[in-house]
């Protein structure tokens, strides 16, 4: 079975390392905070001015004044810091964030990402995504492999307005884990119950398969 959104977040959480400062984008990325591996300490940053986000709150823990950049209620960990947007983006632009996890509508085989606008649809704006993709060296995209019509979102060339160019290093979808290297999606892991042929059929961009491809260890 392909992964659900929580499964994608759980797999991305395995990329976290002790001492990392991590920015989580809107959507699937926010779920990563629920799956921090045991034995490591990670600081989650939100561009609306929080360092030290915890997992999503239980009903009893909800505080309407404590939200992330996607306006979802969150928890804060002991020692969390709250600050203005100027300081928040100074962290991002100063490359003090070790990993950025973003959602996407499309990703190209060159590592381009489109994640903020569908022409003709009402949008709130790009938000902090443009700064994140311009400043971060370690960008992982969390997304569904295809859209609601079953069309691939991993393309030779993005069709939607770009957020960033040649910036994505890794993509984790409901079907697979892929690195982006030399103008191609390099298949690294398969979701449980998913075949290489399933990934090939769902990927419009160039897909490279090197040796045996293991199943994700969740």
Task: Provide a descriptive summary of the structure in words.
This protein has 218 residues and is of the alpha/beta class. It has one domain (5-209): Glutaconate Coenzyme A-transferase, CATH 3.40.1080.10. Helix content is 15%, strand content 25%. Strands 4-3-2-1-5-8-10-11-12-13 form a ten-stranded mixed sheet. Strands 7-6-9 form a three-stranded mixed sheet, with no helix packed on it. A hairpin with a 2-residue loop joins strand 11 and strand 12. The model has no long low-confidence stretch (mean pLDDT 92).
Summarize the structure.
The protein has helices at residues 5-13, 85-93, 129-135, 196-202; strands spanning 21-24, 43-46, 50-53, 76-82, 99-103, 106-108, 113-114, 139-142, 154-155, 170-172, 176-181, 184-190, 207-209. It is an alpha/beta fold and 218 residues long.
